[in-house]
Amino acid sequence: xxxxxRFITIQVFFCVLATALTGYMLNSALHQYANSQxxxxxxAIDLELTQLTPDQDIEAFAKNIKLQYSLDKLIxxxxxxxxxxxHQGNQDYLPILAKKLQEFQPxxxxxxxxxxxxxxxxxxxxxxxxxxxIMQNAFLILFLVILVMALVPFITLKLTLLQASNKVGDAIxxxxxxxxEADNKDGKLDSSLADGTVSNIFxxxxxxxxxxxxxxxxxxxxxxxxxxxxxxxxxxxxxNRNLFIEHYEHQVENAEKPCFGTLAVVRCTELSLINQTxxxxxxxxxxxxxxxxxxxxIGTYSGSACYRLNSSDFAILLMNVPLKEAExxxxxxxxxxxxxxxxxxxxxxxxxxIVSFETGKPLSPLLAQVDTALSMAxxxxxxxxxxxxxxxxxxxxxxxxxxxxWRQVIDDVLNNSRIQLMIQTIMPTSRSAKAYSExxxxxKTSEDHILxxxxxxxxxxxxxxxxxxxxxxxxxxxxxxxxxxxxxQFFGLNVSAKSxxxxxxxxxxxxxxxxxxxxAAKLIFEVSEFGLQQNVKASKRFIDMVHRVGARITVExxxxxxxxxxFFRDLKPDFIKMDATYTRGLEEDKNxxxxxxxxxxxxxxxxxxxxxxxxxxxxxKHIIEQLCLDGAQGYYIEKPKEI
Length: 643
Fold this sequence. Notes:
There is one protein chain. By secondary structure, this protein is of the alpha/beta class. The chain folds into 4 domains: 2-133, no CATH class; 189-229; 239-390, Alpha-Beta Plaits (2-Layer Sandwich), CATH 3.30.70.270; 413-642, EAL domain (TIM Barrel, Alpha-Beta Barrel). It contains 23 helices and 20 strands. Helix 10 packs across helix 11. The N and C termini lie far apart (80 Å). It comes from Pseudoalteromonas piratica.
C-alpha cells in the first residue's frame, strides 16, 4: 500500500510539473510574440504619424490605422491633451485562459507614440486574438497529452493489482467453499471452520463467522423494525407508497399463480384548500377522517388493503374482486363521503377512480389508467366515482378522454358563468394597518354540483383555459361589487401566475379596470410568490400595469421560496401574505417567531404590508399581533361565506 501511494504521488508530481513547465514556456512564447508585434506596430504607427500633414482628417487617419494594424484600443490626443479620437477596447475577445493570464501577467500592454510635427499623442493596444487562441489550444492539447501519460501507468498498475486481488479472492473463496461443501453433509459448519487448518491459515474467517453468528438475530430484528417504519404513513398509520409498490409487484406483477382484482384510487380533492385556509392540522384531520371512511367501506372485502400513496391519494387493492362488484365499492364510498360532507363545511370530500388488473399487469400503465378514471370522476359530480374499463382504452383512442371531459366541463362553466363567489375577511391588527377581504370562486357543474376547486384550476391551466377562468372571476367580482354597492370596501382577487405573465390578459385587464376606475382602486390582485419568480420581467410588467390603473398587488404564499427582498423591492408589491406553514404552531416555535419578526421588519422597511393566513386559534392571533404583522386571515378570524 505504501508503494502504491508513493507511485501515485510521483505520477501526480510529474503531471503538475510538466503542466507548469508547459504553461511557463507557452506563456513566455506568447509574451515574446506580443512584445515583438507591439514594437513592430509602434514603429509603423510612429512612421505614419511623421508623415501626417495638418490638412489630413485625423478621424479618417485613426480609423485607417485601427483597421490596418488590428488595434483593440486607440486614443489620439492633441497638444493640449484633448481627445481627438477615442475607441476603448475591452479584451472580451480573448479566450478564457488568455484572459486570466492577461489579468495576472499582462502580455497586451498599452503602447504610446507622438507626432513630431503636429504634436499628436497616440495610445493603442493590439488585438492579439489569433495568438491567444493558438496559445490556449496548444496548452490544452499538451495538458491532455501529459494527463494521458500520467494516467496510463496508473491504470495499468490498477488492472494488474485487480487481477492479483481476484486471484487471491478466488483462492480464498474456493477454500471456504470446499469446507462448506464438505460440512453441509453433517451440518457442522462451525466445527469445520474451527479445525486446525482453517484457523491456522485464515483465523479471520473464524472470527468473522463468530461475529456474524452473534449479530445475525439483532440485524434481522433491526431490519424488520426499519422496514415497518419506512413503509408506514405517519399521519394515518397505513402503508405508504413503497409498501404498495412492493405488495403489487409481489402479489400481481410477478405473481407465480394467476390472479385478478381491482385497484381503486381515492383523491382528497380539498386538501390543498384546507391547508391554505384552515391550516395543516385541519388538513391532517381531514386525511385521517377520509382514511377511516375508506377502512369502513372495504371492511367487508376479504384480503383488501389500503395504502396512502401521497399527500392526497389513497390506493385500495382488492384481490379476486371483479370490476362489476367493485362498482358497489364506488357507491359506498360516494355515500360515505357525501354523508361526511354534511357534517363539515366542504364543497366536496373525495373522488374515486377504479380499474381492474390481472397477473403480469405493470404498475405504471395501471396508474395512468386510474388517473384517467379520476379525471372523469372529478368532472362528473361531487364525491363521484368512475370505472375505467380496458375496452375504453383500446388503441389509445380515448386515453385522454378524462381531459376531453374536463374541457367540456370548463367550457360549460365559462359559457354559462357557473361560479359562486365566497368572501373571507382579513382582520387588521391595528387601527392604522391596511387590510381587505379576499374573494374566492367556487365552480359548478350543469347539475349545480360544486367542482373540486384545486382540480378545476389545475385542469384549466393544463388545457390553457386559465386566462378565461380568471377573466370570468374578475368580471363576476366587479359586477357583484357594483350591484351590492360595496364600493367603500377593499377586495382581493386571486390571479394565476400564468395569466399574470400573459400579455393579452394584461391588456384586457388594464382596459377592464379603466372602465371602472373607482372599483379598480378598491381591488388587490393576489399572485403566488413562486409564480412571480418564474418570469420576473413579465411579473414586473403586470405589477406596473396594476399600479398604473390604481389597483394593488399581494404576493401570497410568501416565504415558501425564500425569495430575496431585493426581488420585492424591484417589483414593489403592496402586500405580502405569509404562507400558512409559518403560522402553524407559531406560539411554540421560537425560531419561527424570530424569522417572522425579521420578515416583518424587512418588509416594513421597504413599505410592504405583511399579512398572515391560516390563523386557527386565539394563541396564534395573539402571537401575530405581538410580532407586529398588519393583518390576519383564517378560520378563527372568519370562515368563508357567500358574498
